[in-house]
Amino acid sequence: MKLSPDGSPFSFSLAVSTGTIGINNTKGSLFSVFLQEQAEDQEKYFHIPGEYEKADIAAYLIHMGAKYFLGKLYAEEVHIAFFSSEGATLPENVDEVFGEVDILVFEKSPEGISDSEAKKMLEKIDPRIVVFSKDSLDFAKKSGFVVEAVETLSFTRVSLPMEKTEFYVMG
């Protein structure tokens, strides 16, 4: 699988063996998941909380507060979550809401959860990989995370780190 930035501040494409899925939070405050080939056809976006499946990828959208949805994908045995803190409110059981997360794509917005809440959230979720958006690099550095800049991230279930969380910045 290959995760790549897709132009906008919090837009990504995920290429898997059966196709490419687009993920973004750029259409107003809606989080969208769509087949990349359908990027222009907004009627085919998933943007209402619920469970969906396309191109052998299971997608879950969960309402997390005033403006935001948590987007979770399951593809090729890897759990990927997309979360922007803008306008989000975190529930007490944040680890249960996120569930198992192998890769967390994270955007830390100044308008939303605090730095300390964000850091606690990352510790509770304990993903194998965290991919920060470029806008989150200052937060990552202030929080003491050692971050590597990458243009894309290629991975498989077996290539995920086992012992320590790895941190990247992309976008």
Can you give a write-up of this model?
By secondary structure, the chain is mainly β. It has a single domain, classed as Ribonuclease Z/Hydroxyacylglutathione hydrolase-like (Metallo-beta-lactamase, Chain A), CATH 3.60.15. It is 13% helix and 42% strand. The protein contains 3 helices and 13 strands; from the N terminus they run E-E-E-E-E-E-E-E-H-E-H-E-H-E-E-E. The protein has helices at residues 94-98, 115-125, 137-142, and strands spanning 2-5, 11-16, 19-27, 30-35, 50-54, 57-63, 69-75, 78-84, 103-107, 129-133, 147-149, 153-154, 166-170. The strands form 2 sheets. It has an 8-stranded mixed β-sheet. It has a 5-stranded antiparallel β-sheet with strand order 4-3-2-1-12, with no helix packed on it.
